[in-house]
Amino acid sequence: MKKEEYIKLLLKLEWVIGLTASISLFTLVFTASFIEMNNIIRVLLIVIGFVIFVVGVLYCIKIEQVAGYYQCNNCHNKYIPTYKDVLLSMHIKRTRYMKCPKCGMKTWNKKVIK
Ligand SMILES: [Zn+2]
Fold first, then answer.
1. Given a cut of 90, is residue 1 above it in pLDDT?
2. Tell me: the pLDDT tens digits for 53-112?
3. CB 53, CB 25: distance < 8 Å
4. Could you tell me the residue ranges of all domains in the chain?
5. Measured distance between the N- and C-terminal CA atoms of the chain, rounded to whole angstroms
6. How many A from CA of 25 to the centre of ligand 1?
7. In the predicted model, what is the mean pLDDT of the chain?
8. Ligand 1 centroid distance, CA of 107 (Å)
9. Strand positions, DSSP E, 1-114
């Protein structure tokens, strides 16, 4: 498999993980809210739902960090940011507001495959 295909596959996987995590959270919270059960089990279901969701989201961010590159809007330098930078940056879809390691400017950096 070519590297670009592999990156595209990873980004698709990110969608699947994100969707699965969201659906499990929704399903577990919904079940806990509307079905008769012991309160301890109810709390447990909600906690499990949130744990799955948080782990899923953190995993998605990891994929987004390592799959492909981010391109600086100022100097067009392509780079792989740190996990912390990706985690803490504002974003619109996959475009993130981050500091470029080359020119040091904070701009909206697009995700690029190549
Ligand atoms: Zn730059």
1. no
2. 999 999 999 999 999 999 999 999 999 999 999 999 999 999 999 999 999 999 999 999
3. yes
4. 1-67, 68-114
5. 15
6. 38
7. 96
8. 8
9. 69-71, 78-79, 91-92, 95-99, 106-112
Q: How far is the CA of 109 from the centre of ligand 1 (A)?
A: 9
User: Could you tell me which CATH number the domain at 68-114 has?
Assistant: 2.20.28
Whole-angstrom CA distances from 37 to 24, 34, 44, 47, 81 are 18, 9, 11, 15, 46
CA of 69 to the centre of ligand 1 (A): 13
How is residue 79 written in tokens? 């780079």
Question: What is the token pair recorded at 6?
Answer: 């592999």
pLDDT of residue 114: 86
pTM, rounded to two decimals: 0.89
d(CA 42, CA 44): 5
